[in-house]
Amino acid sequence: MTLSEVKLGLCPATISKYVVREWGLAFAREAMLSARPVGPLELKALGVISQIVEKDLDGDGLSRALDLYLAKIKVAAPKASSMCKELVRLEWKEAGSPKQASGIKALFDEMMKADGEAALGLQQFQSGVKSPRWDELLLSNPIRAKL
């Protein structure tokens, strides 16, 4: 990717709000000012992208990588995943505000419910299961997580 608009006397006005948010202020500024190519390895090193999948001859590399990633995230409890997304959203939009504090408290209270997903996860952990199979547990248990 290259933000080469500056070479033409332009700036990347439309995309800048996304680039700055995802790449970080200092890196985005340098990339915009220098108009240099920014490759996938550099973006991966920054944490902007999580994985690079090489093109392979049979064309199944992306499918295999996706299957492996889905298997990784299958260990996460659905409600806890949703709550993590909300924590990040609160940090992004409400950082340091009373709204962030009340949002975190609400998430904590939800997490600590006696009949919630966390109770089931802790029960599994205490019985020796280090990584519950959430898909199976939630199908066989009356506790239902909202996605």
UniProtKB/TrEMBL annotation:
Pfam families: ECH_1. Belongs to the enoyl-CoA hydratase/isomerase family. This is Uncharacterized protein.
